[in-house]
Amino acid sequence: MKAIHMLICLCMVMGFGSCKKSTDEDLSVPVVTLSSPVASQSYAGGGTVSINGTVTDNSLHELEITITNNATSAVLYTKTISVHNLTSYTINENWINSVAVLTNATLKVEAHDHSENHGEKTVQIILNP
């Protein structure tokens, strides 16, 4: 019983200690740069939406990519990427357009760092059936 209690305590310490805030005040917001897609870029049905760019910060934590239907707010694509403790990450993701009707959508790339700062970039795209 004592061994189980110690194991549980050890797991808790490891879990809480693996991702901690810096003791120095970090006010720097992660910088997100997108090279693709560009504003108002149109995609044919079955076409590949290539999402390319970079994210930089002193200590990145997590990156989230979403494509949302502007009319319904439905999430068409989402991906969360762990970028734990990196200072730079190259975005190279693809999504196949599978909409059934003409859709105006928003691509958003949001980056978080260990100090709970976040930076984002959005671009409007057109998805054809």
In short:
By secondary structure, the chain is mostly beta strands. The chain has one helix and eight strands.
What does this protein look like?
The chain has one domain: Immunoglobulin-like (Sandwich). The protein has 129 residues and is mostly beta strands. The protein has one helix at 2-17; strands at residues 31-36, 41-43, 48-56, 60-69, 75-82, 88-96, 103-113, 118-127. The strands form two sheets. Strands 2-8-7-4-5 form a five-stranded mixed beta sheet, with no helix packed on it. Helix content is 12%, strand content 51%.
CATH-derived architecture: Sandwich
Number of domains: 1
Shape type: elongated
Query: Low-confidence parts lasting 5 or more residues at pLDDT below 50?
Result: none
Helix content: 10-25%
Number of helices: 1
Average pLDDT figure: 88
Question: Over all CA atoms, what is the radius of gyration?
Answer: 19 Å
Order of helices and strands: HEEEEEEEE
Measured between the Cα atoms of the first and last residue, the distance is: 61 Å
Overall strand count: 8
Which sequence of strands runs across the widest sheet?
2-8-7-4-5
SS strand fraction = over 45%
Structural class: mainly beta
Supply the CATH class: Mainly Beta
Query: What do we call the CATH topology?
Result: Immunoglobulin-like
